[in-house]
């Protein structure tokens, strides 16, 4: 518990104090948000043109510092699970950094092409997936297992190849989901904090009823539940510190550097805690926003092909921009979406907790 609290506190302080000078440096170099002028969302966004981006660098650095020093101060050993989740987060953050670099340095508003970004995500995801089924501990538990999981592993092993594909779907799905959510000031940061808080609780609960120390009808075969909670706390603390500056009106954006990193952290935590499918519920807001884009694009293409008259379900996707277009204030959308995210987290935690009790 000390490691969790220290890691969270250190990462929060680093992010809180480190974001201000980052904003100053980015402003001096005029490395601000590039706004597209060819879409219906451009009008509300014009006032944000020039706001420093790439703030995700602060979140990543603060997380790594918090995790490292939290362990050093308590002499609690780092684990394969924790390091692998941080690798996934940092690797995807680097892919996002390249995307942001092209936007702010090269003045390319679209950044990386979608194929190149997906390729970068896939490389990081494959490395994580392969390494995650190695490094067994004394009980022969590896950071991940080749089973699909909900509240714990179920069914038969799907094998290494299918497991890697499954991890790729989770990693790309959630990293892009957080990326799509990051369209309004503080929205993705606040929603991520809620899901990360859930994983602090889940990791602690799994540690309390770890099968290696407390054999019972309901126990958890998880290699490093405590360190998963430490990672979640470190990322959460970094997000808290960053949100001070990212809340409406934002002084800095996390950019793809931050959104891809946060999505990777969530996917990684779900995999090492054996709660793959539960993440779909805990991160329900990200799922809804991603599906709004899928529905919009799908209906548009089908109606255009069949009738020649494309139809849009929403005024614009992702969903948060639809409400922007119908006249909701940005802060209203952000707070209401945070409430929705909180309800999904509460529901997911409720199911996780209730399912533990014997029937």
Q: Which H/E pattern describes the elements?
A: HHHHHEEHHHHHHHH
Shape estimate: globular
DSSP strand (E) fraction? under 5%
Order of strands, widest sheet: 1-2
Poorly predicted runs of 5 or more residues = 37-43
Topology overview:
Layout (H helix, E strand, L loop, with lengths): L1 H27 L13 H4 L10 H19 L5 H25 L9 H19 L15 E2 L3 E2 L4 H23 L5 H22 L16 H22 L8 H18 L5 H5 L1 H24 L11 H7 L4 H25 L5
Antiparallel strand pairs: 1-2
Helix pairs in contact: 1-3, 1-8, 3-4, 3-8, 3-9, 4-5, 4-8, 4-9, 5-6, 6-9, 6-11, 7-8, 7-9, 7-13, 8-9
Keywords:
globular, mainly alpha, single chain, 359 residues
What's this entry about, in short?
With 359 residues, the chain is mostly helical. The chain has 13 helices and 2 strands, in the order αααααββαααααααα. It has one domain.
Write a structural description.
With 359 residues, this protein is an all-alpha fold. The chain has one domain. Helix content is 67%, strand content 1%. The chain has 13 helices and 2 strands, in the order H-H-H-H-H-E-E-H-H-H-H-H-H-H-H. The chain has a two-stranded antiparallel ribbon with strand order 1-2. The model is unreliable at 37-43 (pLDDT under 50).
